[in-house]
Each structure stands twice: as structure tokens, then as C-alpha cells.
Amino acid sequence: MTPATRRTFSQTIEAALGSTATPAMRTFAYGSLIATVAGFAPACDPADPADSIDSLTQGVIANGQADWVQLSGRRDTAQVQYYKEFWRDGSACNSRFGCRSMTVFIKLRVKPVASADLTKKKVGVVYREAGRADPVTAVGNYFTTHGDGYEEWHVPVKSDTFRGTLLFTGWYENGAGGTFYDDNGGQRYAVQWRDSDWQTLTQDYGSTTARFDSTGVKGTLAFVVQDLDYEKVLKLSYSTDGGVTWNELGMGAPGSKNQLCWKSDIDQDFERWEAVLDLPGSFSSFQFKLVYRHGTGGGVSPAEFSFSSGLSKM
């Protein structure tokens, strides 16, 4: 994050076309887009705490590059649309070491054209994940035709990085000269495809100094947050009565007490956020929850990711 330099999403546009992945299919599990929530407060700006996070310069995944289909096609969810569902297949899995890789099959809905040249008809996604410099294109396979006339296609996205959440744009070349896409209103869809994920959000234990004792809670809670996009919202809530009631911390400038704020960039794809706590009192317990919302504004499908933990009394 560079406070002195600002840019909008459109100012970061670069075209990139990656390789195509078409791994074999085997059903392993079924997933869906994580539920949405509303009412989050804007994040803080180290240079100007009053600003929204939407205006910040950040080193987001793949530098915020525009997908090739966003540059050459037309956004039209009547032609292609993400079902907000996926299923997945694990590769070389065992109880000791887990899976070497995971293939996520993203489900897209497309409108067929009677006069289409089937040799030119393609459905797929352009996806990005932490650790990859450029977006990658994956091409899907026809699955079935539904009673409403729309076709369902499954697009395999294979990952062996195991580094949190995937972002993607769905696209459709209809075989009759049309190229269409669904990019969630410009903010792309986010899929957290692992059951146990410590990459999208996690606690930075090395930088956490918070202590819970008979006088209350004091010190810093630090977190590592995957930098999915420019438009995200974070909130930190805590409970001192076993989760019966929750208090939400607001956003503030770095160093402010009892507020959540950006601290530093860790690398191209991750950030450090922290809250300096000074909460006096005699509490029975101390639990906290960090929530990250991807997808803001009207006309988009937001996704929510969370990390929950607590402090043991000393």
C-alpha cells in the first residue's frame, strides 16, 4: 500500500492471457458461494482515515489486471452467468499429507444459439490466485441442458498452490460471433474452495502481543489478509461473555486503540492488519472474529470470509 500514490481500478488495466487447464473429472465434494452479509464499515487509509478502502493503492492479486474477455467481450448475464455453485476433486489425497492438488469445477449457465458453429463455441473462466503473476484461462465442458433452454457447463480450475481464495470471471464465446462475460459487476467472483483455509485470513501470531488477564485485554491482535481486490471491507468483532453478545471495532488510523487498521504490505498478495486493544474489565472469556467481505455496492454478489479465535486468560 502506497499512501502517496492513488489509482482507480481502471487505471491498472493490462491484458493477460494464460494457459488452459482441462484436468479429468471425479466428484469429491460439493460447494457453494459463501453467504453474504451487509452493513460493514469502510476500512482505514494510513494517509487519511476518513477515506474508503476503495480509493487505496494496493498490491492486489495479479496487479488488478483486466481479463482479456473484459477487454474484448460484453458483460451480459443473460448470455452467461455463474450459478454460484461449484464442486471439486482432490488429487493424490491421503490422511497424512492431504491432497497434492485440488480441481474446482465452476458451474456456468449459458444461452445457446441455434446457428452456432460448435467448433468455435467455448465456455470458461479467467481466474487468478495468490502467487501467480498473471490471470489464467480455463476452458469448460458441456454438462446438460435444462428445461429453460439454458446449458450448464463445468469449468475445471486446478490449483496446487493451496493459497486461499480464487477470483474469476466467467466467459462465453457462443459460436456465432458473440463474446460475453459475467464478472460480478466488475468485481469478479470469489471462491474459498478449501474446507480448512488459513490463507485468506489468519492470525499473525508472531506480531500478536495481546494478553488477557484479570484486568482485561491489552496489546495488539495482528492478522494476515489475502489481498483479493481493491474493493473490500474488513471488520473485527469481539465477545467477553462466551459469544452471547458481540462488540464491533471501528476503523481508524494506524496506532489508534481499539480500532482495526491496515499496517503494512507483506508481499504482492498479502497484507498485515492489526488492532491495538485496551479493553479494561473483568471478563469471563475473550473471543474475536475477523470478517472480510469481497464484493461491494449494488448489483454484485458479495462473499464473506471469516477467521475466529480467542485469547486464554493468564
Largest sheet: 9 strands, mixed
Helix coverage percent: under 10%
Bin the strand percentage: 35-45%
SSE class: mainly beta
Estimate the mean pLDDT confidence. 77
Instruction: Supply the CATH class of the largest domain.
Output: Mainly Beta
Number of domains: 2
CATH architecture of the largest domain: Sandwich
Classify the oligomer: single chain
Shape assignment: elongated
Distance between the termini: 36 Å
**How are helices and strands ordered from N to C?**
EHEEEEEEEEEEEEEEEEEEE
CATH superfamily of the largest domain: Carbohydrate binding type-21 domain
CATH-defined topology of the largest domain: Immunoglobulin-like
Q: Total strand count, please?
A: 20
Low-confidence stretches: 1-59
Please state the CA-atom Rg, rounded to the nearest Å: 21 Å
Q: Number of helical segments?
A: 1
Write structural notes for this entry.
This protein is mostly beta strands and 314 residues long. The chain folds into two domains: 9-40 and 61-191, Sandwich (Immunoglobulin-like); 201-311, Immunoglobulin-like, CATH 2.60.40. 2% of the residues lie in helices and 44% in strands. The protein contains one helix and 20 strands. It has one helix at 68-72, and strands at residues 29-32, 74-75, 80-91, 101-110, 121-128, 136-139, 141-145, 151-159, 166-174, 179-182, 189-191, 201-203, 211-213, 216-226, 232-239, 247-251, 259-267, 270-280, 286-294, 303-311. Strands 12, 13, 14, 15, 16, 17, 18, 19 and 20 form a nine-stranded mixed sheet that branches. Strands 2, 5, 6, 9, 10 and 11 form a six-stranded mixed sheet that branches. The radius of gyration is 21 Å and the shape is elongated. It starts with 28 loop residues before the first strand and ends with a strand.
